[in-house]
Specification:
- The structure holds 2 protein chains of 2 kinds.
- By secondary structure, chain A is an alpha/beta fold.
- Chain A folds into 2 domains: about 1-130 and about 270-325, Periplasmic binding protein-like II (D-Maltodextrin-Binding Protein, domain 2); about 140-265 and about 340-365, Periplasmic binding protein-like II (D-Maltodextrin-Binding Protein, domain 2, 3-Layer(aba) Sandwich).
- Chain A has helices at about 1-15, 15-25, 35-55, 70-80, 90-100, 105-110, 120-125, 180-185, 195-200, 200-215, 225-235, 245-255, 280-295, 295-300, 350-365, and strands at about 30, 60, 85-90, 135-145, 170-175, 220, 240-245, 260, 265-275, 310, 345.
- In chain A, helix 1 packs antiparallel against helix 2 (about 15-25), helix 3 packs antiparallel against helix 14 and helix 8 packs across helix 10.
- The N and C termini of chain A lie far apart (about 55 Å).
- Chain B folds into 3 domains: about 1-65, no CATH class; about 70-180 and about 185-295, no CATH class; about 325-545, MetI-like (MetI-like fold, Orthogonal Bundle), CATH 1.10.3720.
- A two-stranded antiparallel ribbon of chain B has the order 1-2.
- The chains are: A alpha/beta, B mainly alpha.
- Chain B: It is found in: Cell membrane.
- Chain B: Belongs to the binding-protein-dependent transport system permease family. CysTW subfamily.
- Chain B: One of its GO terms (biological process) is transmembrane transport.
């Protein structure tokens, strides 16, 4: 940060100082993200404005986030890190941090304060779930349904997933225990606050699987985020879980007969990690970029291109309209108070511990 | 060679000589050796390339299936203490003490969470236990740190410590060090290791860590609290009132303080329990003990649905067994796919081989066309065809063969995987069959017929036996390709059509349990080799022709 501050100051003062700064920072940067609409939103909100301010910097994208953890480990073992900044979900960030593959940082030193002077650590608040994690957006996993296949009473609650009498037909769920187990317990009468306590016990895990068993032969299991929107568009399923941004795109951009639920949406995060082992020049460039790309305005800008909520509290009031459709984006944010009346925050600590164990049971159950 | 031998034995006047006077036999052998060397030189680049880029990485990956040095590397003291523990009840206080010092250093080097991840594969909860403990260990040391500091501010400063522990010569070198230059490596003062053994060990670890990893000078940084804990232990164990080296006043005063009844101490076991009550459960200690050795059969046992327990090897609980099922399913489905490929490919290859060249070429392009289309596109196309609202079901409903509310489930199950994979792997069966069939002379068939054989006899007794090498080659190709297939089963396999490779991919890219992935991969490799060997015994590998 000291470096960044001095650099910013000097660039502002003289052109000559700018030339010195360019020497100290790498002039190229590889950002890793998920590809598709999400990466495009990052490119438009962060990377292109930054490149305009720094014409000598080349920014390239690598669409490898879905295998970032394994690739970073392999790169680290080979001692050759070719990525500068990697976009991952929070659970991956925690694992990368545990493995020593991501760098720990100090939020107040690295990130800009909010316009009103609130420190970055307070502005992001609890969303900094790991010492290595710089959150960007809040997204949620929720349920979409075909408006023309659910009759006159469209579902309003998550438990419609398990209600085969009222809503017969296939459902699509993600092929992993996370989210499904929570919803199963919730719909089996477990109080929201106790879900993870129950899920810790083998009996609780059996209970969740037993609940899922009631709809097992009506479930299509998905593993790619694009599956459920496709299955809904084809009429292959009546309802299914997916990310809220995907549903926004199906409903608002593609105008399909699809509706969505906000009930018991599971919040998750997406954000940056800095790989360990970067050279000093590369690190200086990454820090300079991050300071810019995670400030209040930039996070709010991203919401003009995709319906994910900014991770900073101070960004929420600045969320405007969709860049192409011209509709107000605030009501489509998972964090909007009207949408967030009944939500669940993904329990990272729990899943870091129980993921292997419950996944083994879940997969064995699936294969039966 | 035989010629030379013949000549030599036939000749009665001793061995035959070459032009330069050496025996012909020797000279010939040398010439042959030279020839072999030259041949070897020619293939050397390829051999090296294969060794470096193929054999070595695979060997390295397979080795991970037994590698387990992370436990003993990260917790060397603890594993040594636990080696003498019988696993009954709680481990002794010395184990907690060892774990304290081990984990303290590991936490400073950020290695404790890696160990936690490793042990979490064996015992659920280890991950957060280690993460938490890394943060909580300071609470134990601070009890001592605070008391020493209250006695004398010097214990809170870098210099007194450095003078007490460091070699005087090293001290002057270190004082002259400037940032950017290489640091003179820390050396313990003569005799200090005998006087304060634990403190010396901890301080040395601290100083070396500071120099190597943080690039800071031990003269500027006060030691971490584990050093204070070690100092307390040394002072409590020995009498230092006669000490007269550097900083004697501080040390003697500290010794007197430790011996006074007011000095507050904390038991390591208690300290660990305060961090997390799981440490008070012998389970985690048993797991550490069980996985202390540098090699472990644990991953292999896991990959055949067994587990290592203190009581020995046992089967996993019923609701966690999955790998044997997947292995069996993978082999069974690969065989089904191979058979359906044979049935579909044989007539196609036969027609290709017996049509006039121009028509055959056109057909050949049709066979090759799928090769030029992306695998994902072909697989997704099957999705469109087979799904319940898909083309085939629509046609069947339109024809009235199937009711609209009971459309056939042809995808996201075994059937979908078999159909899609048969389609994708078909060219690998057709091509070797075709190249073998096109070498079978027509004259044989005509001869058989002219001798009075029926069409069937001609085919079965004359043509078919000659085409077997093609079937063999195609089958081996298709079977081995399908046994390791991953993308297609993932997309169209649902829950009943997935292969073992999908789990391997999961452990490589998602759960990061590379040891288990390596063990599963090794088993798969062994299965393929055994099947190959069996094929060689039953059919004979000489009987395989690619052309």
């Amino acid at each position: 940060m000291k470096l960044t501050k001095t650099l910013l100051a000097t660039t502002a003062l003289t052109v000559a100082a700018g030339a010195v700064a360019a020497q100290d920072m790498a002039d190229s940067m590889t950002l890793v993200s998920w590809g598709g609409a999400y990466q495009a939103s990052q490119d438009k909100a962060y990377a292109q404005p930054y490149a305009e301010m720094h014409p000598d910097v080349t920014i390239s994208w690598d669409e490898s986030s879905n295998e970032a953890v394994a690739k970073l480990r392999a790169m680290n073992e080979a001692g050759n890190i070719t990525w500068d900044l990697v976009d991952v979900v929070a659970s991956d960030a925690i694992r990368l941090c545990d493995e020593g593959l991501a760098m720990e940082y100090d939020p107040d030193e690295l990130l800009a304060a909010a316009p009103d002077g609130t420190k970055a650590s307070d502005d992001f608040g609890d969303l900094i779930v790991s010492d290595c994690y710089i959150p960007q957006i809040v997204y949620s996993t929720t349920v979409g349904y075909r408006t023309d296949l659910v009759g006159d009473t469209p579902p309003t609650e998550i438990c419609a997933l398990f209600d085969l009498d009222t809503y017969p037909g296939k459902r699509s769920l993600e092929k992993r225990p996370i989210n499904n187990m929570e919803w199963a317990l919730y719909c089996d009468g477990v109080a929201k606050a106790e879900i993870y306590d129950v899920l810790e016990t083998p009996e609780g895990q059996d209970q969740a699987l037993a609940k899922l068993d009631t709809i097992k032969d009506q479930v299509v299991w998905w593993s790619a985020g694009a599956d459920t929107p496709q299955l809904l568009a084809d009429g292959e399923v009546v309802m299914g879980s997916t990310y809220n941004g995907r549903l926004f795109s199906v409903i608002e951009e593609q105008d399909q007969p699809v509706g969505m639920l906000w009930d018991m949406q599971v919040f998750d995060l997406d954000g940056w990690i800095i790989p360990t082992g970067l050279s000093d020049e590369a690190l200086a460039r990454v820090k300079d970029f991050l300071y810019f790309a995670t400030d209040t305005q930039r996070l709010a800008d991203q919401a003009a291109y995709i319906s994910y909520g900014p991770a900073r509290e101070s960004s929420a009031p600045l969320v405007g309209e969709h860049a192409e459709l011209g509709i107000a984006m605030a009501p489509h944010m998972p964090t909007d108070p009207r949408n967030a009346s009944n939500t669940l925050l993904y329990n990272y600590e729990f899943w870091a511990d129980y993921r292997d164990d419950i996944d083994a049971k879940f997969q064995a159950w699936l294969a039966q | 060679m035989t010629d030379a031998k013949g000549d030599a034995t036939e000749g009665s006047a001793g061995p035959m000589m070459a032009a330069d006077g050496t025996p012909l036999k020797k000279s010939l052998a040398r010439a042959l050796r030279m020839q072999k060397m030259r041949a070897l030189m020619l293939i050397a680049p390829l051999l090296l390339f294969v060794l470096v880029t193929f054999i070595a990485p695979i060997a390295d990956m397979l080795f991970r299936s037994v590698e387990n040095d992370i436990v003993s590397d990260t917790m060397p003291r603890t594993t040594a203490v636990l080696a003498d523990w019988d696993g009954q009840g709680m481990p002794p206080e010395t184990a907690f003490e060892a774990a304290y010092f081990d984990l303290y250093i590991a936490a400073e080097r950020k290695l404790h969470t890696r160990l936690g991840t490793r042990l979490n594969y064996e015992q659920t909860g280890a991950s957060s236990l280690f993460r938490k403990s890394g943060r909580g260990l300071d609470d134990i040391g601070e009890v001592y740190q605070d008391q020493f500091e209250d006695l004398d501010e010097g214990w809170d400063e870098a210099m007194p410590w450095a003078e007490l522990m460091g070699d005087p010569e090293w001290l002057s070198e270190q004082a002259a060090w400037t940032k950017g230059a290489r640091q003179p490596e820390f050396i313990l003062r003569d005799g200090i290791a005998d006087l304060l053994p634990r403190t010396a060990e901890q301080y040395e670890a601290f100083a070396l860590y500071l120099q190597d990893e943080d690039n800071k000078s031990p003269l500027d940084e006060e030691p971490w609290s584990a050093v204070h804990t070690a100092l307390y232990e040394d002072l409590a164990a020995g009498d230092l009132s006669g000490y007269s080296g550097p900083r004697a006043d501080m040390l003697v005063a500290a010794d007197a303080l430790v011996d006074s009844p007011d000095f507050e101490t904390v038991s390591f076991a208690r300290g660990f329990e305060d961090i997390d009550e799981d440490w008070a459960d012998p389970e985690i200690w048993r797991t550490i003990k069980l996985y202390s050795p540098e090699m472990t059969p644990g991953y292999f046992l896991n990959s055949v649905d067994m587990q290592l327990t203190p009581e020995g090897v046992e089967m996993r609980p019923d609701n966690q067994r999955i790998y044997m099922l997947l292995f069996k399913r993978t082999i069974f489905m690969s065989m089904v796919i191979t058979c359906s490929c044979i049935l579909l490919a044989y007539p196609v290859a036969y027609i290709l081989a017996n049509l006039p060249a121009r028509k055959a070429n056109l057909l050949m392009i049709l066979v090759l066309l799928p090769f030029w289309t992306s695998l994902l596109v072909r697989t997704s196309a099957w999705k469109v065809m087979l799904q319940q609202q898909g083309v085939i079901n629509d046609v069947l409903v339109w024809l009235g063969l199937v009711a609209d509310d009971s459309r056939l489930a042809m995808i996201n199950n075994q059937f979908g995987t078999i159909v899609a994979m048969t389609h994708i792997l078909l060219p690998f069966m057709i091509l070797p069959m075709y190249s073998v069939m096109s070498t079978i002379p027509h004259t044989y068939v005509r001869a058989a017929k002219s001798l009075g054989a029926t069409d069937w006899t001609t085919f079965w007794r004359v043509y078919f036996p000659q085409s077997i090498p093609g079937i063999g080659a195609g089958s081996i190709l298709v079977f081995i390709l399908s046994i390791g297939y991953y993308i297609t089963p993932e997309i169209v396999g649902g829950t009943t059509g997935t292969f073992i490779s999908n789990r391997i991919a999961y452990h490589i890219s998602s759960s990061l349990n590379w040891g288990l992935a390596a063990a599963l991969g090794t088993i798969l490799l062994a299965v393929v080799l055994i099947l190959y060997w069996a094929y060689d015994r039953i059919v004979g590998i000489d009987n395989v022709k690619l052309g």
